[in-house]
Each structure stands twice: as C-alpha cells, then as structure tokens.
## 1
Amino acid sequence: MRDRDGALPKICAHCVNHQGERLERQLERALAHERMIRERLLACRESESRAQTKLEEANKKVVSALASRGALAVRLVEAAERSRDHGCAAQRLAVDEYVVRWAENHRQEERRRDFW
C-alpha cells in the first residue's frame, strides 16, 4: 500500500520474491496471457484464411489450365481425324497416345459436366 504522500514503501527481498504468489498478480498474468493467446489465435485465423484463399485461386488456375490443355488436345485430334492423309508434325502429334488420352479424358469430363 502507498503511504500518505503516495510513495511506495520499500519491500524486503523476501516479499519481492513472493509478489507473484499474490492472487492479484496471478490474475494479471492470466489475463495478460489470455490477451496474448487471443491475439495470436486471431493472427493464425487470418493467416489461415489468406492461405485458403490462395489455395482456392491456385486450384481454379490448375483446373482452367487442365481444361485448356484438354480442349487443345481435342481440337488437335479432331483436326487429325479430318485429314488422315496429311503427314505433318501436327498430325503425328495428334495421334500420339498421350494426346489422344488427354482428348478422351477431356471429352468424358465435358459429358459429365453436361450431364449434371
């Protein structure tokens, strides 16, 4: 307690060492700790939200890129089917097993999308 003129009295070494045992000090530490935890939790939630947004944007780009690649494969395969006697590099690419598989997967995906 403060004395009459407002100065804090000197505390002996034993009392200074044990001030943390007072209920008021324990409550202050608990409240400060709770405040710190709440601030960090809020920061974590904001960081998670930003990460989720970035993940969703990246997934949209991946889906778009794959759809574009599939559509290109379909166009290439269809063009090759229309002129089978043409022997250019694009024709050889259009009959490549990998490109044909991409085109077929894209066609199946479009059919599923149209169905639903």
## 2
Amino acid sequence: MSSSLTLGAIITGFLATAKAIVMTLDSPIMKKIRQTDYSNDLVSYLGQAIWLSFSFCILSIVGFFVSTEDAWFGLVWIFIGLASAGAFIRVTNIMLKIIKHHPE
C-alpha cells in the first residue's frame, strides 16, 4: 500500500504540474486549441487523470485501515489503478503531441 500511495502521489503531482505548464503555454498550437472546443476536452482529460490518481492515493490510504484481503478492496484497487494508468497515458500522449508539434 505504501508503494501504491507513493506512485499515486507522484503521478498526481506530475499531472497537476503538467496541467499548469500546458495550459499556460503560448505556443501556436495551444492558441489554436483554445479557439476550439478541444480545450474543454483537454481540460477534462487532465482533470480526469488528476482525480483518478488522487483517488488511487486515497484508496491506498484506506488500505492501511481495512482488510486488504477482501475481494472488494482488491477489485476496486485494480480498477482504480488501471483507470488511473490509462488516463495518465492518454494525457501524456496528448501533451507530448502538443510539445512535439512543429508549426508549418
């Protein structure tokens, strides 16, 4: 549980920092994104990833106080962990595309 909590906290912190950096970028691609409805999608994806990672942290803290041998805890832990990892990968891929974009 301790390792899970640490991992979740690191990912949450990374995503929150990335959100602040990406949303304040003044690059041409970010200007174009802000002019469309895709900025709402980007903010939503970042928010989902942050909240899922934070939920993984909370669940890991709960694991210190409840029996982790119960099936419900294991299933919820796996589900939140996979959802958090998926959201992190999605946001990371989008951010890398934004950063790699070369204006024509």
